[in-house]
Amino acid sequence: MTFRLKAFAAHLLASAVILTLVLGGLYVGWYRWPGWYLTGVPQVLAMLVAVDLAAGPLLTCVIASPRKPRRELARDIAVIVAVQLVALVYGTSTLWSGRPLYYAFSENVLQVVQAYDLDPTAAALARDRGLQLAPHWYSLPRWVWAPLPQDPAERDRIIGAAMQGGFDVIAMPKYFRPWEQGLPALQAQLANVGKIQFFSPAEKRVLEDRLRSAGLAADQRNAIAFTGRGRPLLAVFDRSLHIEAILKAD
């Protein structure tokens, strides 16, 4: 039993160190709050934890026997590690391709823009033009303003494409502008919680309670919905249009 426990502990420790380094790097670089919540990554994380921190070490504990030939034991552990590596590569690549690259204000909402949300052609064009807000493989999340173009024909084309499931303006970095330039338009879209349509009546009551608990006004035009693949958040701004809080409704 001691042999099994030692094998289990060693495998668990090695798996935990590797998983912590991978997930820690992704979290610190791209998935810090509110990125992890808005991108809806708990399912991927649950799979990684289940395979790499639970199933792998437990299987090692089951197959580890001091009476088993060392070559056979090494082969069995290698098979387990191979399965763990496949799960780790799959999970890491999924998280990498879905990493948040922008938090964009566009029209009447804040949105997280993940790497796979971008139009590849538009992203490449922005890089070729050397645009300041073009995405690169090393880009960290940036706050941007993504207004629709002024040209009516181009504007209608983008809106029509988005309505049919195509790329919206938040997928086209050539239209991105510095965050500060969009603050007047953002201010015009701020509303009190009760007027924001992204939340149910029950969620609005929860948000109002959380605003009051945080010492923030719940009856002023100071908030906007913050959307992604998970449940929307509420972004609350002060009079200088700095974010005071980002609140969950659940």
Q: Brief description of this entry?
A:
The protein is α/β, with parallel strands linked by helices and 250 residues long. Helix content is 50%, strand content 14%.
Verbal overview:
The chain folds into three domains: 2-97, no CATH class; 100-181, no CATH class; 190-250, no CATH class. Helices cover 50% and strands 14% of the residues. The chain is built from eight helices and seven strands. A seven-stranded mixed sheet has the order 4-3-1-2-5-6-7. Helix 1 (2-31) runs antiparallel to helix 3 (42-63), helix 1 runs parallel beside helix 4 (70-97) and helix 3 packs antiparallel against helix 4 (70-97). The two termini are 45 Å apart. The mean pLDDT is 91.
Sheet having the most strands? 7 strands, mixed
Number of DSSP helical runs: 8
Total individual domains: 3
Low-confidence stretches: none
- Report the principal-axis shape: elongated
Descriptive keywords:
250 residues, alpha/beta, 3 domains, 7-stranded mixed β-sheet, 14% strand, elongated
